[in-house]
Design brief:
37% of the residues lie in helices and 12% in strands. The chain has five helices and four strands, in the order ααβαβαβαβ. The chain is globular.
Length: 143
């Protein structure tokens, strides 16, 4: 794992950058939820393991969820993200009809309230669907 191969100086630089708001970790699961991690107990364990690691080693708790595959942006996953204290979720590869409708309506961002009738506003988070259903960064990020 990358972290274990770094010098203490590099680790301290990462800690500094995150504490200073110059570097942010998103999601922080041990892996990203996909077809190998679809049951809610697996999602929770996956996120708990990764987030405990980040909190212990870097001293940060993620606020934004990220799912690049369609397997992670279910109501269940969004509810879990909200209950983990996330403020937002970003995902790619949405249903083509939903993506097309949202593009036409300029509604690629919305306030997602999974299980709102049961949990109210404590389960809401900002959702953002990426424009292109791709595995690489958008042009405007200028990597």
């Amino acid at each position: 794992m990358w972290w274990s191969e770094q010098t203490e100086d590099t680790k301290n630089k990462v800690r500094y950058l995150t504490q200073n708001g110059q570097l942010e970790f998103v999601n922080a699961g041990w892996s990203m939820h996909d077809e190998a991690c679809t049951h809610f107990e697996d999602m929770i364990d996956n996120m708990m393991f990764g987030q405990q690691f980040l909190l212990k080693e870097v001293g940060v708790k993620p606020r934004i969820g990220w799912t690049i595959d369609p397997f992670g942006h279910s109501n269940t996953n969004s509810r879990l993200f909200a209950e983990m204290g996330f403020d937002a979720v970003i995902f790619a590869r949405g249903d083509w009809q939903d993506s097309e409708r949202r593009m036409n309506e300029s509604s690629m961002q919305w306030l997602w309230r999974p299980t709102f009738n049961h949990l109210g506003k404590r389960s809401q988070l900002l959702a953002f669907m990426m424009i292109d259903n791709v595995y690489w960064s958008q042009e405007y990020f200028d990597f």
